Structure formats: structure tokens, C-alpha cells
Amino acid sequence: MIRVAAVGDVHLGGDACGHLRPALEGLPQVADVLLLAGDLTRHGTVDEAECVAAEFRDLGVPVVAVLGNHDYHSDQQDEITKVLTEAGLTVLEGDSTVLPVGERRLAVAGVKGFGLGFAGRSCSDFGEPENRAFAGHGKQVAARLAGALDGLAGQADRVVALTHYSPVADTLLGEPPEIYAFLGNYLLAEAIDANRVDLAIHGHAHAGTEKGVTAGGTRVRNVAQPVLRRAYAVYEL
Amino acid sequence: MTDDPYYLQGRIERRLAEDPATAELGVRVAVHGGAVFLTGQVASEERRRHVVAAATEEAGGLEVHDDLGITAADAPTGAEELR
Questions:
Q1: Angstrom distance (rounded) from CA B9 to CA B53
Q2: Domains (ranges, CATH) in chain A?
């Protein structure tokens, strides 16, 4: 069994720094790894990244993260990645990592993801340049996830796909349906279903629900902290 | 600008998302019965105060009801077994 702890949308910075640390101190007793599903900061600044680094460093388990849309807001995503990496976190964007857990191996493929929507209600890569940029980025991030997952199942006992945006509509339940295209992207799920993935973790949808499943039967969990209403969730794979 | 509650809701939502003092995309705004209602979870008491202050500034004298919560950060009590 591999125990995966996960949380997203912690939005640290300012007076929220340190809020999670008390609950994280006992993490090695209940989990083998901690996954962070993006929106680690509020404004995407290096100062806030320092707070994130302090919160999640030296926890006694590996910490693997993707960034979210808030972490891009100040165009400092590369600096944020550097701060987190220097603190010992692994930050994924279109790539993967394989972690030993006892005698087993856990693979995590990660990408921020983006909107696009869901089959029957998605945005197409067509028309004005602004619309093509939106939909084109949605297609591009899904292709990056597909690339990161390609061949990964052969390297590990369990595979987790980690994104900020949702691959399915199930876990958006509670959000206004009209904004689903800004919350998730069904091409992420198609990339997941084209591979053996044991669990898909995402955040972003604060008013959504925790549990869903892809069309191909992969379990999906929305770990946005306002959805979990706790510091993190633990999934045993 | 109009006083219509619909556009007021839009102005407050946009302010809460785009004002650096708030940067909150997860707060719900509703305007009913001549009052503004704020719901959702924010990460700290300070952020809650900033959200209410920004909404009050935009609300043009309407009463603002703070139904916000602070996101819980307790350790979980169990795990979910996925087979």
C-alpha cells in the first residue's frame, strides 16, 4: 500500500503563513508522500513562495507540486519554482518523478493544466486569436500530460496524475455550470485514460466536490482545501 | 453604471477577483432584498476583513452580510482506501 496525502489551493502568504504546519508535523505517520495541486500562493509572488517553502520543507516525506493559475499571476512562476525546488520540493510541469516507497515505486506525472471545457461544451481552437490562444493552451497542456504519462506505468507500481485544473466535470459539482470551461479540460482526462493511472488529483474548484471518476474509470479527487475542509486528505493506493 | 442588482453583483465579483488586496475568485456574491451576501471560504481572518471591506466599498450603501468561513486546516482523522 502507498499512502498519498494531497491538498491544493492553500493560497499561502501574509497572515496565512504557518496555518498548515501544525497539521503537517505528523505527516510521516500517515502518508508516504504529499502532493500539492497548485494555487500555493495568492498573488504568485516570490515572497509568498518563501512562505510556501517554509510551510512544506523538511516534512519527512517527499513533496511533489504543480503550480496553479494564482501562482502565475505575477509572471514569477519560474522564480517560484526555483524557491520551492531549493526548499526540497519537486515541481512538475509536463514531466514526472518516480519515488521509492519501501519496496514499491510511486510515479507522479504533473502539469498545471488549463481550461477548455468538456465534450459537448468545450471551446475550440478557432476564430479570433484570443480564442485560439485560450483553446490552444488547453490542448497544449493536455498533450504535455500525455507526454509525461507515456511509458510511466512501466516504471512504477502506482501512477498518479497531478494537475491544478480538473480533468472531469464530476468534481466541479457545486460550481456554476457556466464556468466549467474555465475550471477543467476533458483532454486531461483523455490523456489519463490513454494510460494506466491509479488516481487523478486536482484542485482549482473551491466550491466543487471531492470525488469523481473519468470516462475510463480512473478515480479523480478534488483536493482544494476549501473542498476538503481539512489540511489534506490521504488516499491509500 | 447602473444600480441594477445584477450589475452590482458583477462589479463586486470583479473587484474581489481583480483587486490585489483580495484576489479571491472563490467568494460567491449575491444581491437579494437590497442587501449583499458573501459566501465561500477564505484562508484567514485578515483576508475575510479585506473581502468585506472591498465589497462594502462597491455596495453603494447596501448592507453587506458576511457569511464567509475560514478554511479549516486540521489534520484528517482517516484515509480513503482506493482499490
A1: 15
A2: 3-236 (3.60.21.10)
The continuous run of DSSP H or E covering A207 comes out as none
Instruction: Say if the Cβ atoms of B75 and A232 lie within 8 Å.
Output: yes
CB A5 within 8 A of CB A35: yes
State the pTM of this model. 0.96
Residue B21 sits at the chain A interface (C-beta within 8 Å): no
Q: Which three cell numbers stand for residue A81?
A: 519554482
Is the pLDDT at B1 greater than 80, yes or no? no
Q: All 3 cell numbers of residue B30?
A: 449575491
> What are the structural domains of chain B?
5-70 (3.30.1340)
> Any CB–CB contact under 8 A between A234 and chain B?
yes
Cell numbers given for A191: 490523456
CA separation for the pair A19, A29 (Å, rounded) = 20
What ipTM was predicted for this assembly?
A: 0.91
Q: What is the mean pLDDT of residues B56-82?
A: 96
pLDDT of residue B3: 78
Paired with A201 in beta bridges are A162, A221
Check CB contact under 8 Å for A230 and B75: yes
pLDDT score of B2: 76
Cell, residue B12? 463586486
Q: Report, in angstroms and rounded to the nearest whole number, the Rg of chain A calculated over CA atoms.
A: 16
What confidence score (pLDDT) does residue A237 get? 97
Q: Which three cell numbers stand for residue A88?
A: 526540497
Distance (Å, rounded) from C-alpha A99 to C-alpha A96?
10
The answer to whether the CB atoms of B73 and A23 lie below 8 A apart is: yes
* Residue-averaged pLDDT of chain A: 97
Q: What pLDDT does residue B66 have?
A: 98
